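Dear all,

This email documents one entry for the complex benchmark we are building for the journal club exercise. For each entry we list the sequence lines for every component of the assembly. Then comes the predicted three-dimensional structure of the complex as a token string, followed by one or two observations. Please use this as the template for your own entries, and keep the labels exactly as they appear.
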Amino acid sequence: AQTIHQWPVAEIKAVGSPLSLGCTIKGKSSPNLYWYWQATGGTLQQLFYSITVGQVESVVQLNLSASRPKDDQFILSTEKLLLSHSGFYLCAWSLDREAEQFFGPGTRLTVL
Amino acid sequence: GDSVTQTEGPVTLSEGTSLTVNCSYETKQYPTLFWYVQYPGEGPQLLFKVPKANEKGSNRGFEATYNKEATSFHLQKASVQESDSAVYYCALGDHDTNAYKVIFGKGTHLHVLP
């Protein structure tokens, strides 16, 4: 069975500080991977997707970047956090472009 | 661009009553349509997907028909339960381009009273 793990579970960070969020998928080789952001009480905004190691496409930047250093790992990062970065960050995977996406448990980020 | 519009919440129902959450979409492509459900503090879970027009998806008593002519994908359930309280998202997968984009509606918060 496939499992998706996100870390950390929650973060409280200062404005201007760096950030790195991680996502790992086990039990599935070469998945498509996605990052989403969700404001409190808001909808899901797709940020990035990746179909292979080393290749990441941006959908909406929001002063964030993403990387896929390994087949099963997806990283979201920024060098300088903004207050507007607060929210719920979700990683997801799918088998292919037309398949449904399976979401991880999310990381709650609070920027003060 | 592509968009999804769904019933604005919150929607409050009593247990045993019927539910309809409207979803309309705009796209020039041939999308796959999804309904997701999200419980507090968790990631969304797929309810079901429908890749083709005029087909119906269903799961856990929920169902929706992909109506290409009306560009609609309304979610229905005949008799809701308290455990159905959650946020429901209609989503559109744009698969006719090179982009792996999924566009979510704003979500409809359902609150079912016992």
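Observations: The mean pLDDT of chain B is 92. The longest strand of chain B covers residues 86-94.
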